[in-house]
């Protein structure tokens, strides 16, 4: 079994690179809940600190980082509204990054999946699971503070419209959106690159300044991550 040789910080806050003696590297985050694995990821002890491997094939944010997205607005102390939090894979790493000074509000529509997210949140007091439909942000407006970052990972044909609607409710001026565009959920007849352009134009027409877009292949086929700043 390969052993970790070193853990080194990346150029993004609270995100690390684990380097193994077989020459491979993996993204990792410092475990906010030592001893607890969320989705079967490897736990690594290095110089008295526990880290969690961050699997880019399980997390679009990790994939975007490895594909070279120029900036990660998720950092220590920020408030994140996460649409499509699912069972907690990516939001658990968000929890590591923002630390206890930050908050991550996880919106999830499926009661069964929310039960899994609640188990993750038991060990992570900065995660706030909310059973709700992201299409109707007015139903959870009293549960969520204004957000520094809106993270959107929902498989809906109108996913960008839903993201924009939530931004109008919750995203602070000059806050950031990370939008995972799922081309095949929007239109299976069009080329993904054409869909990305159309969705990006929606953002631009709704008060966003698009700062970067990265395609997530091979981690997620026909997906792209858009980084946009909210200027309205």
Count of helix runs: 6
- Count of domains: 2
Strands of the widest sheet, in order across it, are: 8-7-6-9-10-12-11
Distance between the termini: 51 Å
Which series of helices and strands comes N to C? EEEEEHEHEHEEHEHHEE
The rough form would be described as globular
The CATH class label of the largest domain is Alpha Beta
Kindly state the mean pLDDT as a whole number?
A: 95
Helix content: 10-25%
Count all strands and give the number.
Answer: 12
Indicate the CATH architecture of the largest domain: 3-Layer(aba) Sandwich
Uncertain segments of ≥5 residues (pLDDT<50)? Answer: none
Description:
It contains six helices and twelve strands. It is an alpha/beta fold and 232 residues long. The chain has a seven-stranded mixed beta sheet, sandwiched between helices. The chain has a five-stranded antiparallel beta sheet with strand order 1-2-3-5-4. It folds into two domains: 4-54, Phosphorylase Kinase, domain 1 (2-Layer Sandwich); 60-230, Vaccinia Virus protein VP39 (Rossmann fold, 3-Layer(aba) Sandwich). The model has no long low-confidence stretch (mean pLDDT 95). The longest helix is centred in the C-terminal third of the chain and has 13 residues, at 192-204. The protein is globular. It is 25% helix and 33% strand. The N and C termini lie far apart (51 Å).
């Amino acid at each position: 079994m390969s052993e970790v040789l070193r853990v080194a910080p990346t150029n993004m806050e609270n995100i690390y690179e684990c380097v193994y003696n077989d020459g491979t590297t993996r993204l990792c985050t410092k475990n906010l809940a030592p001893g607890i694995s969320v989705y079967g990821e490897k736990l690594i002890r290095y110089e008295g600190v526990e880290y969690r491997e961050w699997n880019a094939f399980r997390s679009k944010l990790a994939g975007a980082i490895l594909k070279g997205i120029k900036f990660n607005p998720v950092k220590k102390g920020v408030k994140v509204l996460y649409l499509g939090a699912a069972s907690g894979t990516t939001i658990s790493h968000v929890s590591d990054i923002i630390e206890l000074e930050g908050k991550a509000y996880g919106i999830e529509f499926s009661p069964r999946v929310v039960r899994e997210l609640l188990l993750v949140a038991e060990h992570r007091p900065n995660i706030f699971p909310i059973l709700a439909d992201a299409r109707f942000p007015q139903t959870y407006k009293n549960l969520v503070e204004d957000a520094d970052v809106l993270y959107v990972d929902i498989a809906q044909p109108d996913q960008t419209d839903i993201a924009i609607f939530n931004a109008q409710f919750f995203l602070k001026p000059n806050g950031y959106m990370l939008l995972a565009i799922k081309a095949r959920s929007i239109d299976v007849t069009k080329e993904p690159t054409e869909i990305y352009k159309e969705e990006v134009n929606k953002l631009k027409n709704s008060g966003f300044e698009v700062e970067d877009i990265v395609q997530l292949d091979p981690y997620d086929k026909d997906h792209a991550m858009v980084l946009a700043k909210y200027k309205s």
